[in-house]
Design brief:
Radius of gyration: 19 Å
Structural class: mainly alpha
Shape: globular
Order of helices and strands: HHHHHHHHHHHHHHHH
Number of helices: 16
Largest sheet: none
Length: 255
């Protein structure tokens, strides 16, 4: 199936009531972070069904047409197709397979090239960990650990909010694979970010650090940085702690 056929089909699924609700939810009004974004009015399971039907057959070269669509759900479809293709190439059996590695790298290059098309938090959160985050933990023909650090540093240092969020949220996957380095590095890097979506992203990843790696490691980070953390970041980071400890950290931040 070609990308134009996918777009035409998705347009037939549009729902105007759902479209208006999504435009409010994703802050598309003037001055908001999603300003100007356009929706068809599809629910995520509908988009996933489209991906399930076409991901195996659509050529990678067709995906940029989806990623450049004006429709939010079509861009999500393109991103989830990349996720599906990457995951099929990232099984344990194919970890060190040269051809699979080459194809994974090609997907990552495309993801990075079109990163700004993941221009809302849901598009980032449903794609960054499963593509870029997983790639960080796998062999790559593009380069080793230092190369991957440069890739994420460039994202983190970008002026684009969505590239910055990608650099933080992709570390969710690395923590699922028992590596805390990436989370700590980019939590520190984004600690003084001005945007609420980054306050939430940093706090969310720190919460995952405590949940998946070590609560003591999270506490060590908080001891070093609690006085400089945004209140939203701290609230997200301590969400799984008992109320007494959460209050202690809030009071410590104020002192």
């Amino acid at each position: 199936m070609q990308s134009t056929e996918i777009i035409s089909y998705m347009e037939t699924l549009g729902d105007d009531v759902q479209r208006r609700a999504l435009m409010r939810f994703f802050k598309t009004a003037p001055g908001d972070y999603g300003e100007g974004d356009e929706f068809l009015g599809l629910k995520v399971p509908q988009t996933r069904e489209v991906v399930k039907a076409v991901a195996k057959d659509i050529e990678l070269s067709e995906v940029p047409v989806l990623l450049m669509s004006k429709w939010h759900e079509v861009r999500l479809c393109g991103l989830l197709i990349l996720v599906a293709k990457f995951e099929r190439l990232a099984t344990k059996r194919l970890t060190n397979d040269v051809e699979a590695m080459k194809q994974r790298d090609e997907i990552v290059r495309m993801y990075l090239q079109y990163a700004e098309q993941a221009n809302n938090w849901d598009l980032v959160d449903m794609s960054a960990p499963k593509i870029l985050g997983h790639w960080l933990m796998l062999p790559s023909g593009l380069g080793g650990h230092d190369y991957k650090l440069r890739v994420l540093d460039e994202l983190a240092d970008s002026t684009c909010l969505w590239r910055q969020r990608i650099s933080m949220v992709c570390t969710w996957k690395t923590m699922q694979m028992d590596d805390h380095e990436w989370c700590l590095r980019y939590a520190e890097r984004h600690l003084h970010h001005s945007h609420d979506l980054m306050h939430k992203a940093v706090g969310w990843m720190l919460r995952e650090l405590g949940k998946r790696i070590s609560m003591d490691m999270l506490r060590d980070f908080l001891e070093q940085h609690v006085h400089e953390m945004h209140s939203v970041t701290l609230s997200y980071a301590t969400e799984k702690m008992d109320p007494t400890e959460r209050l202690m950290w809030r009071e410590m931040r104020k002192s």
